Amino acid sequence: MQVPLLDLRAQYAGLRDEIRRAMDAVCDEQRFVLGPTVERFEARMAAYCGVRHALGVSSGTDALLVALMALGVGPGDGVVTTPYSFFATLGCIVRLGAVPLLADIDPGTYNIDPRSAAALLADPPARFRGVTPRVLLPAHLFGQAADMDPLRALAREHGLRVVEDACQAVGAEYPGGGRAGAMGDAGCLSFFPSKNLGGFGDGGMVLTNDAGLYERMRRLRNHGMEPKYRHELVGGNFRLDALQAAVLDVKLSRLDEWHAGRRRRAARYDAALAGTAIGAPEARYRDSGLANFHTYNQYVVRASGRDARRRRLERAGIGCEVYYPVPLHLQPCFARLGYRAGDFPHSERAAAETLALPVYAELTDAMQDCVVDHLTASGD
Ligand SMILES: *Cc1c(COP(=O)(O)O)cnc(C)c1O
Questions:
Q1: CA quadruple 8, 9, 15, 18: dihedral, nearest 10
Q2: Which residues make Cβ contacts (< 8 Å) with residue 255, sequence separation at least 6?
Q3: pLDDT-derived band of residue 144, with 50, 70 and 90 as boundaries?
Q4: Over 70: is that where the pLDDT of 198 sits?
Q5: Would you say the CB of residue 202 lies under 6 angstroms from ligand 1?
Q6: Which end of the chain has fewer CB atoms surrounding its CB within 10 Å, N or C?
Q7: Which of 197, 232, 252 is the last residue of a domain?
Q8: Model pTM?
Q9: Is the CB of 353 under 6 A from ligand 1?
């Protein structure tokens, strides 16, 4: 049985007419970059996420870049985050000439461990003594919020601004604290097609409650221009297309339904994997009473013999993926930062042992049973 890791065609089948009407409206209007369709989507996203301002941008990567640029992050500054994330989290820091100050993850959630971040800030490696920590950048991995209460307390204690990488966690809730991306100074979302809210191409968004920061980010999005042909800041082209906003606006109406569908599939995996050698992912806020305690952008298991199991699934036509096989501190392009294998044991173990399985609302029981059978079978 073929089981794709993600089946966007099944999702599209249920939305085809609505999406085509929304795209047609943009075609009739011929306003393709920013404009009223983008503004309408921004307002709906701000309401959904519970923030005052939402800024549509060209990708999740550019959302991170714009947020860090608007906070003035540059050479000599340090940004505290983990090496277990998508490349963009670190790439944006380094592109601005700043230094990623890395802490290890919590092995249960794969998110930054507040105790590891506290230890890092109390006693940074000697080679980073000249670096001033400016920003704390937790990534909410796989659809579950990082532990923001102790992280925000740590940021207050050290005078750090907080930028959330919520690219995998749109809509995820944190007990007493609101949604992913709405809990720091700025929160970054990605609308890459494989995220829970995915467009027909690249797109992203920055969320904030800070009017001054919003204004700086809004200018940076369009080459720092305000008013026309006057540039007090050097920005870039970080604009969102109206066609993407039109598609995303239709999909936003279904987002909570899709989150619920992913959670139902995750619960079914949890039950099937209980008592096996495969470790199901931890949903730390399951008993919080929040609907979106986890949004399962990925359902990530831990298994011994991960690579053999992965090959077995692939041979059987089952999509699966390793997020991420090489932790970022061991990537060749970051070698000059001086990190070594062994620096972040939880991140390195996660890179060696985890495997993401298909998890989406359109998955059937039979497809899921097939995944579980091949995953738990012994032998190579
Ligand atoms: C997807 C993702 C990004 C980047 O988003 P793009 O829209 O692909 O640029 C950044 N960080 C994390 C954690 C992501 O998963």
A1: 100
A2: 48, 170, 171, 196, 197
A3: very high
A4: yes
A5: yes
A6: C
A7: 252
A8: 0.98
A9: no
Is the beta carbon of 164 within 6 A of some atom in ligand 1? no
Tokens of 6: 């993600």
Instruction: Say which residue the tokens 């795209």 belong to.
Output: 23
Residue 25 structural domain: 8-103+111-252
Q: Ligand 1 centre and the CA of 271: distance in Å?
A: 30
Band of residue 177 on the pLDDT scale cut at 50, 70, 90: confident
Domain membership of residue 309 (yes or no) is yes
The pLDDT value recorded for residue 151 is 98
Same-domain check for residues 259 and 142: no
340 lies in the same domain as 192 = no
- Average pLDDT for residues 283-295, to the nearest whole number? 97
- Closest residue by CA, ligand 1 atom 14: 167
Q: Which of 110, 109, 116 is nearest to 80 (CA)?
A: 116
Answer yes or no: is the C-beta of 241 below 6 A from any ligand 1 atom: no
Question: Which amino acid appears at position 298 of this protein?
Answer: Q
Say what percent of the chain tops pLDDT 90: 98
Instruction: Give CA–CA dist 323/303, Å, rounded.
Output: 14
Ligand 1, atom 13, lies closest to the CA of: 86
Beta carbon of 139 within 6 Å of any ligand 1 atom = yes
Indicate if the pLDDT at residue 379 is higher than 70: no
The reply to whether ligand 1 has any atom less than 6 angstroms from the CB of 166 is no
In a domain, 1, yes or no: no
User: What are all long-range contacts of 194-198, with beta carbons under 8 Å and residues at least 24 apart?
Assistant: 194/6, 195/60, 195/167, 195/168, 195/170, 195/297, 196/143, 196/168, 196/170, 196/171, 196/255, 196/258, 196/259, 196/262, 196/295, 196/297, 197/170, 197/171, 197/248, 197/251, 197/252, 197/255, 198/8, 198/251
| Domains of the chain: total | 2
- Tell me, letter by letter, the H, E, C secondary structure of 215-238: HHHHHHHECCECCCCCECCCCCEC
